[in-house]
């Protein structure tokens, strides 16, 4: 699966939530491994990080496949900011490798990714070669939409619960309109507004 949405829409939080639930909800269970590709510089660094998080010796190629297949746990690999793989230092080969490891019902890896655009558009090097993105075919796309009004109002109410601050209806409507349902913008605006209310109370 690939979670698609603009920056700050909540993809990383959703990936983390899935990782927290996967060991008890996924059948058969898989070991969750979360990698933020903003913290990885190139393919070599990616393989080192993957092996470290899984708990296997540093390796790639055939040895990576062998070590993952013989590992005590099958893996759910959550890759955040997968668009980083378009940068210099990454080639199509790493995506081909991930696809090979994730194909089939008994695959050692299952993938869940986050991206700002569909994979076939993100990895247009595949199109230049007359091929499709190796990840696009095995990842179902889920587009993350902005929050609706009810969700935003619930978020604000939960954030203010247990405090002495109450936002006016007019201020809440302003926050809803200004954020446009974008979670990160709403959080920032709520933080600023809360700080102003606290300052006025002093």
Task: Describe the protein's architecture and organization.
This protein is α/β, with parallel strands linked by helices and 202 residues long. It has 2 domains: 2-143, P-loop containing nucleotide triphosphate hydrolases (Rossmann fold, 3-Layer(aba) Sandwich), CATH 3.40.50.300; 149-201, no CATH class. The protein is 49% helix and 12% strand. It is built from 9 helices and 5 strands; from the N terminus they run βαβααβαβααβααα. α4 (92-102) links the parallel β3 (75-80) and β4. α8 (169-179) packs antiparallel against α9. The protein starts with a strand and ends with a helix.
| Spatial strand order of the main sheet | 2-3-4-1-5
The overall strand count is 5
Number of helices: 9
CATH superfamily annotation of the largest domain: P-loop containing nucleotide triphosphate hydrolases
Low-confidence stretches are none
| Separation of the first and last Cα atoms | 49 Å
The structural domain count equals 2
Oligomer: single chain
Give the % helix: 40-55%
The CATH topology of the largest domain, please? Rossmann fold
CATH architecture heading of the largest domain: 3-Layer(aba) Sandwich
Task: Label this structure with key terms.
Rossmann fold; elongated; 2 domains; 12% strand; five-stranded parallel beta sheet; alpha/beta; 202 residues
């Amino acid at each position: 699966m690939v979670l698609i949405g603009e920056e700050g829409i909540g993809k990383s939080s959703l990936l983390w939530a899935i990782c927290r639930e996967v060991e008890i909800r996924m059948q058969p269970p898989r070991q969750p491994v979360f990698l933020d590709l903003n913290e990885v510089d190139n393919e070599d660094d990616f393989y080192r990080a993957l092996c470290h998080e899984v708990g296997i010796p540093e390796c790639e190629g055939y040895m990576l496949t062998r070590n993952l297949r013989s590992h005590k746990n099958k893996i759910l690999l959550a890759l955040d900011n997968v668009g980083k793989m378009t940068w210099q230092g990454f080639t199509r080969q790493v995506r081909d490798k991930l696809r090979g490891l994730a194909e089939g019902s008994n695959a050692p890896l299952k993938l869940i990714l986050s991206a700002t655009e569909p994979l076939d558009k993100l990895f247009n090097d595949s199109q230049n070669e007359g091929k499709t993105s190796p990840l696009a075919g095995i990842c179902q796309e889920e587009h993350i939409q902005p929050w609706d009004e009810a969700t935003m109002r619930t978020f604000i109410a939960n954030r203010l619960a247990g405090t002495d601050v109450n936002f006016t209806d007019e201020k809440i409507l302003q926050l809803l309109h200004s954020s446009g349902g974008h979670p990160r913008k709403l959080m920032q605006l709520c933080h600023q507004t809360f700080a102003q209310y606290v300052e006025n109370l002093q």
